[in-house]
Structure formats: C-alpha cells, structure tokens
Amino acid sequence: MRIAIAGGGIGGLTAALALHAAGHRDVRVFEAAAELRPLGVGLNILPSAVRELHALGLAPAVEGHAVTTAELAFYTRRGDLVWSEPRGRFAGHRFPQYSLHRGLLQQDLADAVAARLGHGTVETGRPVTGYTVHDDSASGTTVTVHTGSGDVEADLLIGADGLHSAVRAAMHPDDGEPDTNGMWMWRGTSRAAPFLTGASMAVLGDDRAKFVVYPIRPADESGLALINWVTGRPADGPSAAQGLADRKKEVLAQFGDWKVPWTDVPGLVAAASQIHEYPMLDRAPLPTWNDGPVTLIGDAAHPMYPVGSNGATQAIIDGRAVAWHLHDAPDVPTALRRYESERLPATRGVQEANRRMGPERVIDLAWQRAPEGFDRIEDVFTAEELQRISDDYASTAGFTVEALDADSPYGTGEPR
Ligand SMILES: Cc1cc2nc3c(=O)[nH]c(=O)nc-3n(C[C@H](O)[C@H](O)[C@H](O)COP(=O)(O)OP(=O)(O)OC[C@H]3O[C@@H](n4cnc5c(N)ncnc54)[C@H](O)[C@@H]3O)c2cc1C
C-alpha cells in the first residue's frame, strides 16, 4: 500500500513509525519546512501517549532528555496553593508523564524514522497543497497528493500538517481561519534553580493572566535546570517588541511584580535565552476527518488550546490508532471510518474541555470566589469539588489509572 503523510511533526512521524511497525514499507512523509530543526520549546506527554512511545520502542530515547514529571500544582498569582496532584508514575500510573523540549522529541522521532524506514522517508521542503480522490471500480479508491514539487499517487493520505493544515482545508474548504480566545502567549526557556519537587509543573495566576512553569531538563552539575515557562494574557494582537531584550521588558511589565515563595518569576523572565510569542488558537471540532482514502490526525484533525498537556499526547495516540485500524480492517475506507469513530469523539471532548480551560479552571474559580486571597483553601472550595474538577478532565482525556494500567489497545508495536 502506498501511504503519503503530510507533515513531519509529532503526529506524522509517530504515524510513520506505527505504520512501519505494522508492516508497511511504502511510506513517504512530505514536510513543508526546508529542514527539520529543533523548533519550539517545552511540552508534556501524558502517560496515555508515553505508553504508545513505549510500544514503539522509543521511550528510552525520549526519557534520556526528559524530566519525569512528579506533580501538577495550581497556585494563585501570590503563590497560594489551590490544588496539587501527583502525575504519571508518581500517581500510580504504569507509565510516566514527561516534560521535554518539543524539538528533541521531534528529533527522536525523525531519527527513528530514518533508522527504520530509511533516510529519504521524510521529504523536506515539500509542502502538500491539496489532493484529488479517484474512485475507480477497477483499482479501488486512490488519491493524488499535490505537493509543492509535483503530484504523488497514493492509496492513503494522512493529513498530519498541523494547525494550518492544507489537507484539512482541502477536505473542509469552508473551515476558515483558526478560532482565538483572545489570549496571547509568550513561551520562554531559562536556566535556573529547580523548584518545589524539582520535577513540578506549576500553573500560577487566574483568568486575567497566567504563568505556567516546569523544567524540561534536569539540573546539571552547576545545579541549574532548563526551565520552560509560558504566560497567557488577553491582548488584541502581538506585542510590538521584537528582540529578546524588548520582549523581556514586555513580559516583566506584566509579571515583574509576581512574588511566589518557591521560585523567582521575574528572575526567570530576566534569565530567558529565547522568548517566542503566539496567539492561543484552536478550531471547532469537525463532523468528519475522512474523505475516502484521506484522513486527518493531530492538530490537523483537532487543534486545541494548549492547556492540559494534550496537543502532542493526542497526536501520538492518533498515529498509533490509525496504523492499528489499517491493519485490522478489510480496506482503507473501512479502517479510516473505524479510526474516526474511535478518535473523533474522544478528542472532541478534550477540545471542548480545553475551551473551558481544562484543569486550569481551579485557579480562575479561586480568583472569582476570593479576589482578595484566602487563608485556607477549604474556605473557597470543598475538597470534593477540587477533586471532581481534576477527575473530570482526567477521564475526558483518557488518563485515569484504570484506563492506563491496561496494555496499549493498539498492540505491542512489534514489526509484523
Ligand atoms: C515549529 C513548531 C513549534 C511548536 N512549539 C511548541 C511548543 O513549544 N510547545 C507546545 O506545546 N507545542 C508546540 N507546537 C505544537 C505541537 O507540536 C503540536 O500541538 C502537537 O505536537 C501536535 O502535533 P502535530 O504533529 O499534529 O502538529 P505539529 O507538531 O505542529 O506538526 C505539523 C508539521 O506539519 C508541517 N506542515 C505544516 N503545513 C504543511 C504542509 N502544507 N505540508 C507538509 N507539511 C506541513 C509543519 O512544518 C510541522 O512539521 C509547535 C509546533 C510547531 C510546528
């Protein structure tokens, strides 16, 4: 079977590896970027996706440069604790949660693709611009993939080309631009002292402004860790600041007076080696991800606000799921229908929960109920309410202990 994948990001590369593990050898990945460079800053992979990396034999490589996340904790902007919970192995899961640099994860996946499928598998500088489906009673349903440098014939096209997916646009021409909630993010990394457990992910603030902070490399011999931080604030558009020094000034104008007892928020911003700015974007859930032999995975299928650590997580699971259903079904359209009926409702729930700010809701509620702060969190929430907010998100995103103690539903990943 001739398989084309649009996009060599987290989802597309995982899909290539999962397809290879399922016995497919004619897999080509068309990537728009001229080269795969370690772009982005930090992200998290939840145990539900680490299980899939494990099945593909990738967990040791990824773990080698990740922080094994110990806890997720929510604080007010003054540093008062609202809620904390252990994560991954620390919560009794069989698999850990990892915090790591997106570029290193993408590089691990790309290295594995080169080693297992061959060096020419990812064709960089070759954007997919659209496709044409052919329904031929003799040869079955096939697809012509239009790329920046010529057409390619395939039996299956997987659109893994991210938030601004060309495959999605061709499938749903009326979809338009991504939606925004009016929040803008600065993402930065800084070398700084570890805080709390040394492997904590902390979310500070309220619905006026947030500061999310977690290490993505453990402390080195000098005692400093690589710390990833992300801010969210409402804004009409990007800030005028361009260079690093001006961006630091902008971020400090908003967060320079935040004082929490266990880390130095202004100091982190001042120590940043890079600061990127992004709008917070998603898209509404689609009615279908399929068009004959064409399907969507990852952000192309279900872009979501980056709260709750589900962007890369769900893309990895999609990659494994689509390969599994192909192996199991009599033909491509049936496989894609099964893939969609499993994954579309599951990810729609996460997209919708993230529009309500996922588990971060607890600090928004704390600020709305106690704007002057509180002495005891029990005066603001009952323990049951806090637990319920966390449990509801975990069950929507499929990472309850019960769900994860089982083996992967998509097999071991051993080559067939
Ligand atoms: C450069 C970059 C930096 C990012 N940084 C972060 C970050 O720091 N933290 C975070 O949480 N998330 C980040 N993300 C988003 C995150 O990677 C995704 O939300 C998540 O991993 C889902 O993966 P995906 O494979 O669906 O999409 P992505 O990982 O976004 O991959 C999509 C891939 O498709 C390629 N592409 C786009 N259009 C086309 C086209 N027409 N034809 C062929 N290829 C195309 C892109 O170059 C990219 O390689 C970043 C994404 C990108 C592209």
UniProtKB/TrEMBL annotation:
<dbReference type="GO" id="GO:0004497">
    <property type="term" value="F:monooxygenase activity"/>
</dbReference>
<keyword id="KW-0560">Oxidoreductase</keyword>
<keyword id="KW-0503">Monooxygenase</keyword>
<dbReference type="InterPro" id="IPR050493">
    <property type="entry name" value="FAD-dep_Monooxygenase_BioMet"/>
</dbReference>
<feature type="domain" description="FAD-binding">
    <location>
        <begin position="3"/>
        <end position="350"/>
    </location>
</feature>
<dbReference type="Pfam" id="PF01494">
    <property type="entry name" value="FAD_binding_3"/>
</dbReference>
<dbReference type="InterPro" id="IPR036188">
    <property type="entry name" value="FAD/NAD-bd_sf"/>
</dbReference>
<protein>
    <submittedName>
        <fullName>2-polyprenyl-6-methoxyphenol hydroxylase-like FAD-dependent oxidoreductase</fullName>
    </submittedName>
</protein>
<dbReference type="InterPro" id="IPR002938">
    <property type="entry name" value="FAD-bd"/>
</dbReference>
<dbReference type="GO" id="GO:0071949">
    <property type="term" value="F:FAD binding"/>
</dbReference>
